[in-house]
């Protein structure tokens, strides 16, 4: 997925580069439906990649065993996976600051694509707008480690 692709491509990136991953508002919805303790884990500024990978594995194990709700997880695999992308974005942004590589993620919205059986209300081009906008940011004030929708940063708070 997203983490494996980043692991492969980051060593090839030049200073000043930009990573834009596709997340979803489903990730923020999943976050809001988690227990307060679980929310704190995802927004903890000290969360590292190893801990995030362990959280993802725990979710899979808990979901397979049918105990994910009682363990404080959301009732959505898709949303939880997108929440993991949002958390990974922040982790990578911190790691890549010394190379001046920014890392953000965004939600394209409900787009009219094959994934939505053409039922979305936005065109793919409209959905791509924020991704392109993020990729084209330059200068010292470039945002990094953020989750965006419609060019606006969305903060998750426990």
Automatic annotation (TrEMBL):
<comment type="similarity">
    <text>Belongs to the short-chain dehydrogenases/reductases (SDR) family.</text>
</comment>
<dbReference type="InterPro" id="IPR002347">
    <property type="entry name" value="SDR_fam"/>
</dbReference>
<dbReference type="InterPro" id="IPR020904">
    <property type="entry name" value="Sc_DH/Rdtase_CS"/>
</dbReference>
<dbReference type="Pfam" id="PF00106">
    <property type="entry name" value="adh_short"/>
</dbReference>
<keyword id="KW-0560">Oxidoreductase</keyword>
<dbReference type="GO" id="GO:0016491">
    <property type="term" value="F:oxidoreductase activity"/>
</dbReference>
<keyword id="KW-0521">NADP</keyword>
<protein>
    <submittedName>
        <fullName>Uncharacterized protein</fullName>
    </submittedName>
</protein>
<dbReference type="InterPro" id="IPR036291">
    <property type="entry name" value="NAD(P)-bd_dom_sf"/>
</dbReference>
């Amino acid at each position: 997925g997203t983490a494996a692709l980043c692991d492969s491509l980051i060593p090839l990136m030049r200073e000043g580069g930009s990573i834009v991953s596709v997340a979803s508002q489903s990730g923020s919805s999943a976050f809001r439906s988690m227990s307060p303790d679980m929310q704190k884990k995802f927004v903890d500024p000290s969360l590292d990649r190893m801990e995030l990978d362990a959280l993802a594995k725990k979710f899979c194990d808990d979901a397979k065993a049918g105990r994910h709700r009682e363990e404080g997880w959301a009732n959505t695999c898709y949303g939880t996976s997108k929440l993991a992308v949002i958390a990974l974005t922040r982790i990578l942004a911190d790691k890549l600051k010394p190379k001046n590589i920014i890392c953000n993620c965004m939600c394209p919205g409900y787009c009219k694509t094959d994934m939505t059986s053409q039922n979305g209300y936005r065109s793919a081009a409209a959905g791509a707008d924020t991704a392109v906008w993020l990729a084209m940011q330059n200068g010292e004030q470039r945002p990094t480690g953020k989750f965006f929708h419609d060019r606006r940063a969305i903060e998750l708070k426990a």
